[in-house]
Design a protein that fits this description.
The chain has 232 residues and is mostly helical. It has 10 helices and no strands. The chain is globular, with a radius of gyration of 20 Å.
Length: 232
Amino acid sequence: MNDFTTAFHLAFDLIARLDDELVATVLLSLEVSLSASACAFAIGAPLGTALAVYRFRGRAGLVVIANSLLGLPPVVVGLSVYLLLSRSGPLGSLGLLFTPGAMMMAQGVLGLPIVIALVHRVAVGLWRAYGDSLMVSGASRFRAIGPLMRMGREGLLTAFLAAFGRTIAEVGAIIIVGGNIRGYTRTMTTTIALETSRGDLSLALALGIILVVVSMAVSAAGLFFGRGLIDR
């Protein structure tokens, strides 16, 4: 219990004095996770909607794969991205390994199945309800994707926030591809892992508390502004 008390005191102290290293780490965490979530959303939302609209051989299998990848192991993703970006890998010439860009890529891969699966579930119901009307009005299946996404804005917002929650809490993949370099690729989760390995559990827990607060603040802001856009 003493560790929890100490952790809360440390968390309040770090926030109150706006520790420079903490601010830099939080900003990097947000930059990487928000960028990865945005990329996953930009790719996954249209794909999830298309899976609901189009009928083709193997569609059911793709839906099953997208849902099964919701539990995609971060370490496997990290190792796969590492091999792609290593000097002997196909993308090694980009020089992204051990950079924030590599971390965004790994987190984006983790967030992509979440967006596809959640958006697909929303789009399936909307297509059943409005698909015939859209087709009668002259829209092709391709052109129907946009209207369906607009009708399902609230579900899409949930998908984005779910992807953000997955990426902001991730540690295994970004340690592998980012290297946990102080002042460059060290995020909140990798700092927590580092302090835990050092045995400074109170500091690790304090950073965990701050991470939860930051994550909740971003989600609350997303819901607030997102709902405002939805209600227009």
